Amino acid sequence: DAVRDWDLLTNGMWWNEGLSSLFGYQAQDSEADVESWYSRLHPDDKDRVITSCYAAINGGAMTWSEDYRFRRANGTYAEVLDRSYIVRNVQGQALRLIGAMTDLTALRKAHAALQDSEEKFRTVSDWTYDWETWDDPQSRPLYISPSVERISGYRVEEFLADPTLLRRIVCQEDRAQWDQHVIDMTNNPEGVSKLEFRILTRDGEIRWIDHICRAVYSSFDHKYLGRRASNRDITERKQAEAKLRQTEDQLRQSQKMEAIGQLAGGVAHD
Fold first, then answer.
1. Closest-CA residue to 175 (of 167, 186, 183, 163)
2. Maximal C-alpha separation, the chain
3. Which helix or strand (DSSP H or E) is residue 244 part of?
4. SS3 for 74?
5. 148-191, pLDDT tens digit by residue?
6. What is the pLDDT of residues 182-238, one digit of tens each?
7. Full-model pTM
8. How many CB atoms neighbour CB 102 within 10 A?
9. Alpha-carbon distance 154 to 205, whole Å?
10. 254-269 as b/e, with b when 16 or more CB fall inside 10 Å?
11. Is residue 182 a contact partner of residue 166, using CB atoms and an 8 Å limit?
């Protein structure tokens, strides 16, 4: 930290070597009075910071803290957190203000980049048509996309509150293969698994789900983070396939009847 000791009686100010290591100022660059701090406050922050500081000094406070921008020697501004202790005599008069300034610029940039990354993830995943999930290593749901409600009729909050809900809406005829799928994934977390099963929606409708899941690992240390899955509603496809099979069966039956008719006609002719 850049530490300063401000003598409130003389307005003299002393800085430690942090002023140089953090902000690039040399000893000869710094005034020995309070202007060494005032003059480097960002113009948009200056009045607010000074007003806040004197409010603490004159109001009997023992500590003071603010976020603001502080100019570096190269002219750029650092985002700092200033935490100060106000030294008072037995009468309560403020004598000195000893502060430590931490440069938060890199941390703030990293936080902003993280927020931007999360916003992109949310935008993509929340608007995806499929029902996307991410479970932690203990199989507890971390994320479920909003499409789950369109497909199943149940809200995201219901799935997050009850990890057993998915299994309970899997149709009884498919539950055994679903349970086996969960066992296989537990025993072999690095594997990729595909499965088709039926669910019973909140409205009592049966819908077909095409499910694929795979393990998720950290790109930094390859730590296992759980499993992500994509669930696609293939009910219409299944219905179309069933209708096609029915049509094919009818066609085959028609062809059989036509062949029998031709055979009978031939026998009658003979």
1. 167
2. 132
3. helix 235-269
4. coil
5. 999 999 999 999 999 889 999 999 999 999 999 888 887 777 77
6. 888 877 777 788 899 999 999 999 999 999 998 888 877 888 888 889 999 999 988
7. 0.52
8. 15
9. 12
10. eeeeeeeeeeeeeeee
11. no
